[in-house]
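Course assignment 3, question 2. Fill in each field.
Student: A.L.
Task: Predict the tertiary structure for the chain below.
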Amino acid sequence: MTQAVQAYSYAGASTLADGRLGLSTSGGTALSGPHTHPRFFSGLLTQAAPAAAGLLAVADVALARYHQPRPGWTRDPVVTCDGDRLRFESFSACGGVYARLDVTALDGEVLDRGTTNVNVNGPLRESLRRVGGRDPLHLGVGPDELTVTTLDGAVVEKKVPLPTRWLRGFAEVQVIAAGFDLRAELNGPQAVRFLRSLPRRARGAVWAAPAGRDLRLAAGPGRGAVCLSGTGRIVTLIPLLRFAKALRVYGPAGDSEHQASAWELELPGMRYTLAVSPQPWRGFSGEGQVLEDLATDEAAGDADLIGMLLNFEPAVEIGLLADRSGLPPARVRAALTQLGTAGRVGYDLHDASHFHRELPYDRDQVAELNPRLTAARALVESGAVRLEGDHAEVTTPGGVRRVAVGPGSCTCEWWFDHRGSRGPCKHVLAARIAARATAETPV
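Answer field:
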């Protein structure tokens, strides 16, 4: 498995003492430009206890490997400050669980807007567990300049491998979530009752089906039901239930087996969201949902244009970007997918909109994360695709593949195994790229 290496360098360890939570930062992009140790916020968390529990939950996901657990490197969470909230994000080591805490209960000064990694170490985790009561907690995201000048050897540095599939999954989950719909909403007591009723160690899939204003466990997929494969993967919701005001459950249209889902807890002044892949062994990286948008010839150029218009907004408005860029909404959406593969946008289910963030990873590391698309373009360039109306023949070393371009079906083993559930195969992608090129060629 190919992988890049992420180097973290913190001016000091994050600490929590005397009611002051200082989160140390490493690298990132801000409106004011790139920074080694950016400062984004200084002020009060007006809901200290749920914020501490939520931050700990995000950190727990970053530590976890839900499929085939084993010790490994810790990938630090990232935080984005967009002016009216802080978004903390993490992704599990197995690539199948995404977590985000959106904190809006803030009272203080926004020093800059942007994204950075934050250090969540062992002692800080223990301190977060002890936060309680209703007293506000002072939060600083980024080191205070006066403190930095007197650290003398307190620099925290580490290098962490970032497998390609992990980076791809972080991008894929955003695109998959954009296709989800709200399936159910429960109030606090109902949410507590339902989540505590889930079998803790279920390895297979269970389905949560709407039943009036409640949810019930169903024996299989059905209308409106949401799939949850591996109930232990949402265990980080449980410590937050004492603060829960509501639970919202999201899933894709249709009632086929083994689908991804998202679980959002409404907390005082914040929201905690978990997205889980269709199966524990099946991370988000192989879902292939970004490939169609990335395969268009204009996607890269459109992404450059749209990227210049992003400004760390809390919500990216497609209509506004279309007006400013002169592009139709469909091409704006495709450009956002392209930006998502580089970690530059996420998706907020509650707001039903993208948001701007810049994952602090080298863009060269995420430039070649879709081998199916690379293989498809190579097939087109080698002349392996022969179009026949709505069908195509794609010649490969393993034989000739017959492709139905519109439906996206193929005679290859990938299509036979997945039937399009994990995105198009390389032969379908190649046929569609060739079809578009033929349609755009002047007669």
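Instructor remarks: The first helix runs from residue 48 to 63. The chain has four domains: 3-161, 171-283, 291-366, 371-440.
Grade: pending
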